């Protein structure tokens, strides 16, 4: 997805993450879970009320959102409902951390995500470099639990045109590598 910048509230809310569980279930060998194979797509819906921003230089949300270039250490995070085939199947948690400050939204960010499903979890992480018009960089699938145990591969994101001012939607495709 282009530009997970803190400046754009909706665009920042991309997938799902929980920094404390990113290392869970690393794909280091053993038997893969039955769902950690092939490709699967989820839609993550993030309501504005489930999203937060903290700028390293201000606690004022509006001032933070107006900044053209967020400072290093600024954070955004939240959660959203996960849908598959029009049916809610779980919850996604995410966080973004600004790691490099440049001009006009062209810095760098670290992205961490966890998707919690009834039959296991998926974790992913990645980076963004270059701002709103930069090419999308796939996320790395860093692990999984339950039916997704041993998961590894990559995830790609695509903005969903049905997004609104109150709810941002993104389609996330997980491609598993055996």
Low-confidence stretches: 1-28
Quote the CATH topology: AOC barrel-like
Radius of gyration: 16 Å
What is the strand content? 35-45%
Cα end-to-end separation: 25 Å
Overall pLDDT score: 77
Task: Please specify the SSE layout and strand pairing.
Blueprint: H1 9-12, E1 39-47, E2 51-54, H2 61-66, E3 75-84, E4 87-100, E5 108-117, E6 120-129, E7 139-144, E8 153-159, E9 167-176
Antiparallel strand pairs: 1-3, 1-9, 2-3, 3-4, 4-5, 5-6, 6-7, 7-8, 8-9
Overall description:
The protein is mainly β and 178 residues long. It has one domain (9-176): AOC barrel-like (Beta Barrel). It has helices spanning 9-12, 61-66, and strands at 39-47, 51-54, 75-84, 87-100, 108-117, 120-129, 139-144, 153-159, 167-176. The chain is globular, with a radius of gyration of 16 Å. The relative contact order is 0.28. Residues 1-28 have low confidence and may be disordered.
Quick recap:
With 178 residues, this protein is mainly beta.
